[in-house]
Amino acid sequence: MSDHSKETKPTGGQSQNGTNEEFYECLLNGLSDLAIYMLSPTGVVQTWSKGAQEIKQYEASEIIGANFSRFYNKYDQERNLPAFELEQAARTGKFEGAGWRVRKDGSQVWVEVVVAPLKSPTGELKGFVKVARDATEKKKTAELLERQQKDLIELSTPVMSLWQGILALPIVGTLDSTRSQIVTERLLHGLTSSGCTVAIIDISGVPTVDTVVAQHLMKTVAAARLMGADCIISGIRPEIAQTMVHLGIDLSNVRTKSSMARALEEAMALVNVRVVPIGPKTAASRGYDR
Amino acid sequence: MSFERIPILTMGEFLLVTIQGEMHDTLATTLQRELTARVATQGARGVLLDISGLSMVDSFMGRMVSTIASITRMMDAETVVVGMQPAVAITLVEMGLTLPGVLTAMNVERGMELLRGRLGFAREDSNDYGESERDAIDF
Amino acid sequence: MTTVSRNETLSISEEIDVVMARNKVRLFAKEAGLGLVDETKLITAASELTRNMLLYANGGTISIEHVSVAETAGVRIRFEDCGPGIVDLALAMTDGYSSNNGLGLGLPGARRLVDEFQINTKKGEGTVIVVTKWKR
Ligand SMILES: Nc1ncnc2c1ncn2[C@@H]1O[C@H](COP(=O)(O)OP(=O)(O)O)[C@@H](O)[C@H]1O
Ligand SMILES: [Mg+2]
């Protein structure tokens, strides 16, 4: 956003001679990707540049004399954002911001804006100059990236139903703070939406468990308990068990199991299910088959 | 505001309290008083505190829940907190408020099961919460 | 540069104001695009600090702002009271300490629930606490 302030500097200066006017003309209309326009102290549009026409779609004749608040959506109008921008610019010398604005045809455009006050030599407020840049593409790319990143994390931590009432969450890869939070939220939401009461968190795919990760795991277990669910942590490899003990991590209040199979056994007991082997195929059972 | 009441429903030998909407302090205090009175007069054996409608629980409400659980336990009725929202649970844990000693259940049905299970043991005069309650299912 | 684009001030003088404060904070949190968990954490922190103002300082004012730095939006809340101040701040920030037979988790808990937590208190003059939660 700093490159804006560079470009707005000339407009804030004092006009001294005729060539300055031409310079402004040239500047205003040359920068077609920037909307540059002047506002009265109350926000009435005074001048209109080519770039402004391009971004906002209004012709100079349609918009000069109208209040600039019409560029804002209903929500921003209701919260008085237009007036706030002017007030802030007048008070602090500058307003910088970004947001969705409405074009003439009703479509949305994401703009980055700078508003600067125009003052007379005596300090009296003459109006404002506003510079806006269409940054819709940039915004959309950023949003897309954010979404993709979230999807990736979600894909790498599937929450699956193992048995009626039992949920499993195998974690593969490093557990940092951000991912831990997402894992916790996904697990707890999985519990509410599935109605499962037991969750197995398998960490055999987690390369290292340090104090921070262990703490996250314990918080997850505590939160699940508050919701009325039981958690079992499975897949604690020998080397991880050793580091945990060395770090003084106390998991004595948490159900832990060495393997997923053992965890499942315990989980089934918790949901009142017992696995009973059907036994070897004896002559009797074979006879029964016939 | 002061005429607000939280309904307390009788379900067999248990009481069901469904807390919804905004919980302010006076309401919390009133609830605590009325609930303990009902446990006493009805000789209820358990209390289900359904908080699935609460979008926020702060330390004041957390303390109220713990207090209700302690008081009812002294009167021979266990309290089960039912249906806490994931976001609320995460927040309470982050605050350090884990309600130790308070029973919890995912929904009212589970809460009833839990209470019945504990009552069953109490009646059998046994402290063994082992395998006996579980039905074996062959498959 | 941090930009403030809207703010609202509420005066807190009775218990029902705590509910109002929570509702206002919820609106700001939603506007800033905070996720449900972060929204809940912020509302809970606000509830604790608002209640403290009421309990220990006879009320005060809170102002809620929508803030943004570059592309990141957030909510900032300022709690200001003219109460007795907190004499031993370190003690008050300790888990479990309460002068009031409370759980003693309001101040330390609120600090853990937000991203930024500043406290300024002076004996006999009052307490100002500013918390911020950013969209992640
Ligand atoms: N705004 C305040 N003004 C004066 N004292 C306060 C204020 N907020 C908190 N305190 C003091 O700090 C202590 C700890 O506060 P808190 O962590 O919220 O726990 P609790 O409210 O349960 O006592 C309070 O007991 C009180 O003595
Ligand atoms: Mg407090």
Ordered list of secondary-structure elements with their pairings:
The complex is a heterotrimer of chains A (about 290), B (about 140) and C (about 140).
Chain A: H1 2-12, H2 18-30, E1 34-39, H3 50-56, H4 60-63, H5 74-78, H6 81-92, E2 95-102, E3 108-119, E4 125-134, H7 136-155, E5 160-163, E6 166-172, H8 177-194, E7 198-205, H9 211-227, E8 230-234, H10 238-246, E9 255-257, H11 260-270, H12 283-289
Parallel strand pairs in A: 6-7, 7-8, 8-9
Antiparallel strand pairs in A: 1-4, 2-3, 3-4, 5-6
Helix pairs in contact in A: 8-9
Chain B: E1 8-11, E2 14-20, H1 25-42, E3 46-53, H2 59-74, E4 78-82, H3 86-95, E5 103-105, H4 108-124
Parallel strand pairs in B: 2-3, 3-4, 4-5
Antiparallel strand pairs in B: 1-2
Chain C: E1 2-12, H1 16-31, H2 36-57, E2 60-69, E3 72-81, H3 89-92, H4 106-113, E4 116-122, E5 126-134
Antiparallel strand pairs in C: 1-2, 2-3, 3-5, 4-5
Helix pairs in contact in C: 1-2, 2-4
The complex binds adenosine-5'-diphosphate and magnesium ion.
For this entry, give a set of tags:
heterotrimer, A: 290 residues, alpha/beta, Beta-Lactamase, Transcription Regulator spoIIAA, 2 domains, 5-stranded mixed β-sheet, 4-stranded antiparallel β-sheet, C: 136 residues, alpha+beta, 5-stranded antiparallel β-sheet, 5 strands, globular, binds adenosine-5'-diphosphate, binds magnesium ion
Question: Would you kindly provide a brief summary of this structure?
Answer:
The complex is a heterotrimer of chains A (290), B (139) and C (136). Chain A is an alpha/beta fold. Chain A is built from twelve helices and nine strands.
Written account of the structure:
The complex is a heterotrimer of chains A (290), B (139) and C (136). With 290 residues, chain A is α/β, with parallel strands linked by helices. Chain A folds into 2 domains: 9-136, Beta-Lactamase (2-Layer Sandwich); 153-270, 2-Layer Sandwich (Transcription Regulator spoIIAA), CATH 3.30.750.24. Chain A has helices at 2-12, 18-30, 50-56, 60-63, 74-78, 81-92, 136-155, 177-194, 211-227, 238-246, 260-270, 283-289, and strands spanning 34-39, 95-102, 108-119, 125-134, 160-163, 166-172, 198-205, 230-234, 255-257. In chain A, strand 2 and strand 3 form a beta hairpin. In chain A, helix 8 packs parallel to helix 9. Chain B has 139 residues and is α/β, with parallel strands linked by helices. Chain B has one domain (8-118): 2-Layer Sandwich (Transcription Regulator spoIIAA). In chain B, 44% of the residues lie in helices and 19% in strands. Chain B has 4 helices and 5 strands, in the order E-E-H-E-H-E-H-E-H. Chain B has helices at residues 25-42, 59-74, 86-95, 108-124; strands at residues 8-11, 14-20, 46-53, 78-82, 103-105. A 5-stranded mixed sheet of chain B has the order 1-2-3-4-5, with helices on both faces. In chain B, helix 3 (86-95) links the parallel strand 4 and strand 5. In chain B, helix 1 (25-42) runs parallel beside helix 2 (59-74). Chain B is globular. Mean pLDDT of chain B is 83; it is low at 125-139. With 136 residues, chain C is an alpha+beta fold. A 5-stranded antiparallel sheet of chain C has the order 1-2-3-5-4, covered by helices on one side. The model of chain C has no long low-confidence stretch (mean pLDDT 93). Classes of the chains: A alpha/beta (290), B alpha/beta (139), C alpha+beta (136). At the B-C interface, helix 2 and helix 3 of B face helix 1, helix 2 and helix 4 of C.
